[in-house]
Task: inverse folding
């Protein structure tokens, strides 16, 4: 997402070949999106299983455009307020659509004509097309709509650039990225999404969208925009899809700021699905000669339930979204083991513990920066002052990084680049560098003094970049950064934007953050970033373009994490899901759980620790050490394999999931009791999924507290065929309470 000045005017698409056919077929391995030309515009003709594009277009042509009080269904690929189509029977005015503008002459309507459709160069067997649209009256007001169909996963990306070549500014009051308007998909629609709040992220919610109703999902924090609602969903077309049955449209908006997703089920079974940024305080002013690139929307269609749609999004994320391919390190983050209470000796002690446990990376969290009266020893001061607190860490960060290296560990550091406390050198020197409502006292967040920096202001970004860049350079071998963000835009005003452009705040804030992120990454491409925002509020694909993982929740309680990770895993891959073993009683919930249970739960994501290893008993250290070894062996399967969900924690007394390697030679199965199991209850056998029915698999129960003892399955050590494991399943026992087990499957023979 970006805004570029002075690039508008006639589109200079990096054209390869103009498309002259009356339809465009965009294909992924299992699905097809067909766009059909109707007069001046392009329409959605088909999204679903593969079929001959000409046939799909011919059938779609028989479905009427229609109009009603709620707005028209034009099936246009990018409908705008005021679109006017002659369907030979009547004309109408589109009232909702994806875009609404006020032109420089005050006219509020857009009636598109297609200027061109072109194929653009695309990587990896993908197809990338761009459709350029011009307003019929204001020819220099243009939109370029992009679609990419990935040849190696069933995912489509789409986004839109708006170019204002008019003599004056254009005000955009709605500027969505995507609008699918179509008839004939189904007579019922069910929307599944994730809902939550701090320490309770990603609760799965699903219901039918009744006839005539519209469901609106959204987030208005401006920063923590993946908590309350996550910008991703499954829409079942017809009856509610299960893991393996039903037609599903999965979608995700790649955006970290305020957003909206709307799904409307009109009386005649039209579906109107829109997704995009939310303008919370007025229209976006797009200057003459400027252009704006709206966030990407990614979508996937599955004819075989939600599981396939999840796997498609996971694969896309691993292969095309996140910066670094490959498996992630096992780390220990110092936060829950130390909070603000640490010195050099304690950190070195924790590093030793990390090494003993088999960790690969040690991360210093909040509290290492600020100086004098603003030394960051609690959350009231020092935020924004990104230089080492030498009183606390006299030999600086480079010393700690070298000590980590000496122990064979990588080294990571926490930052909160978008924020500052009023009590900081930064804001004392620059009182106009934070978001504030003109003439009103600031509402402060965390610690009573935290505010959000004005990331629309390039000078602010420059200074934050300078400080962080300098710390990275001084630390030398810095390998990892946790990027945190713990406050909403509570004061909706930018001193930088001036009175005429306050409506630009929500969009420009987020693009400013992305610009800073991109600059840091360009300067230090090897650094792996974690997206964190008061726990899981950056579990979304906007940040995951720059970050390789997200912190799923500050609720590290294993029993709760079963649900949180179940929710986040619907849309986001295991390699990106930081899951840490923490101490008991859990710091958020006060609950106890065995180390094995905590370990087994964390093993279904990117395993890490967040405790002081010194507080572990010797037998716990021994168990954890063996567990880390096992995890490293299974890591390529869990982090880079395909996820199959076997039993939902929402539906029974246990949860079960498994990961299968791409070549189907290896798998890992994880089962978690939810504490409700009865003493003599026997769950139904676990029907495995995703295995090769022709292969035989050796099954080993791992992560046992005492080797060879306490098995949950009778077939550990046996070899069974993939077909039987799927058809007859594995019988297992789960004791009442927090019981769990992990199976490792390895194909034998060919
Ligand atoms: C909120 C994060 O979610 C925590 O993991 C931790 O980094 C704290 N911030 C530090 O202030």
Result:
């Amino acid at each position: 997402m970006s805004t570029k000045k002075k690039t508008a005017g006639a589109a200079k698409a990096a054209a390869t070949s103009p498309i002259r056919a009356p339809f465009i077929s965009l294909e992924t391995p299992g699905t097809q999106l067909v766009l059909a030309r109707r007069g001046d515009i392009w329409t959605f003709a088909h999204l679903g299983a593969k079929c001959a594009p000409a046939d799909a277009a011919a059938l779609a042509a028989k479905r009427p455009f229609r109009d009603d009080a709620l707005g028209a269904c034009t099936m246009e690929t990018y409908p705008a307020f005021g679109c006017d189509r002659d369907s030979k029977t009547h004309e109408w005015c589109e009232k909702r659509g994806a875009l609404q503008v006020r032109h420089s002459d005050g006219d509020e309507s857009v009636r598109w004509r297609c200027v061109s459709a072109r194929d653009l160069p695309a990587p990896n067997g993908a197809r990338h097309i761009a459709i350029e649209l011009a307003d019929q009256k204001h020819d220099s007001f243009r939109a370029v709509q992009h679609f990419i169909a990935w040849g190696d996963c069933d995912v489509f990306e789409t986004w839109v650039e708006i170019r204002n070549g008019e003599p004056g500014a254009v005000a955009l009051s709605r500027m969505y990225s995507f609008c699918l308007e179509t008839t004939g998909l189904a007579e019922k629609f069910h929307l599944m999404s994730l809902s939550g709040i701090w320490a309770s992220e990603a609760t799965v919610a699903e219901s039918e969208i009744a006839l005539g109703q519209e469901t609106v999902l959204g987030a208005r924090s401006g920063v923590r925009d993946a908590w309350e609602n996550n910008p991703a969903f499954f829409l079942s077309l017809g009856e509610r899809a299960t893991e393996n049955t039903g037609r599903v449209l999965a979608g995700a908006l790649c955006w970290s700021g305020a957003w909206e997703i709307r799904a409307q089920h009109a009386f005649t079974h039209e579906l109107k699905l829109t997704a995009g940024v939310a303008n919370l305080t007025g229209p976006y002013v797009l200057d003459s000669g400027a252009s704006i690139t709206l966030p990407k929307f990614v979508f996937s269609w599955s004819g075989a339930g939600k599981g396939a749609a999840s796997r498609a999004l996971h694969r896309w994320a691993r292969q095309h979204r996140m910066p670094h391919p490959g498996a992630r390190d096992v780390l220990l983050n110092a936060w829950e083991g130390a909070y603000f209470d640490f010195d050099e000796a304690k950190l070195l002690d924790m590093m030793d513990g990390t090494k003993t446990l088999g960790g690969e990376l040690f991360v210093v969290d909040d509290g290492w920066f600020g100086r004098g009266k603003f030394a960051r020893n609690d959350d009231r001061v020092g935020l924004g002052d990104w230089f080492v607190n030498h009183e606390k860490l006299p030999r600086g960060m480079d010393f700690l990084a070298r000590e980590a290296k000496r122990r064979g560990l990588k080294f990571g550091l926490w930052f909160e680049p978008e924020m500052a406390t009023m009590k900081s050198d930064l804001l004392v020197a620059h009182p106009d560098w934070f978001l504030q409502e003109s003439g009103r006292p600031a509402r402060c967040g965390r610690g009573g003094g935290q505010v959000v920096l004005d990331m629309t202001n390039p000078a602010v970004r420059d200074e934050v970049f300078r400080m962080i860049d300098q710390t990275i350079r001084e630390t030398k071998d810095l390998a990892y950064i946790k990027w945190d963000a713990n406050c909403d835009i509570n004061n909706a005003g930018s001193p930088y934007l001036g009175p005429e452009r306050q409506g630009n705040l929500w969009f420009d804030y987020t693009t400013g953050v992305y610009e800073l992120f991109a600059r840091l990454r360009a300067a230090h491409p090897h650094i792996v970033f974690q997206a964190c925002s008061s726990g899981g509020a950056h579990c979304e694909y906007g940040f995951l373009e720059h970050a390789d993982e997200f912190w799923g929740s500050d609720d590290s309680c294993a029993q709760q994490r079963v649900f949180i990770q179940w929710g986040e895993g619907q849309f986001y891959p295991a390699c990106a899901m930081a899951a840490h073993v923490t101490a008991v009683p859990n710091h958020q919930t006060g609950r106890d759980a065995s180390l094995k249970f905590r370990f087994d739960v964390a093993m279904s994501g990117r395993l890490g620790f967040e405790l002081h290893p010194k507080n572990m008993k010797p037998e716990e250290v021994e168990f954890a050490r063996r567990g880390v070894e096992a995890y490293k062996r299974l890591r390529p399967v869990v982090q880079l394999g395909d996820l199959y969900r076997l039993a939902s924690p929402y539906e029974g007394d246990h949860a079960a999931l498994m990961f299968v390697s791409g070549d189907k030679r290896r798998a890992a199965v994880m089962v978690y009791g939810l504490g409700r199991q009865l003493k003599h209850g026997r769950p139904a056998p676990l029907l495995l999924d995703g295995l090769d029915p022709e292969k035989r698999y050796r099954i080993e129960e791992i992560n046992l507290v005492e080797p060879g003892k306490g098995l949950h399955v009778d077939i550990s050590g046996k070899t069974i065929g993939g077909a039987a494991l799927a058809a007859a399943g594995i019988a297992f026992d789960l004791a009442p309470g927090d019981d769990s087990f992990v199976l490792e499957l390895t194909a034998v023979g060919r």
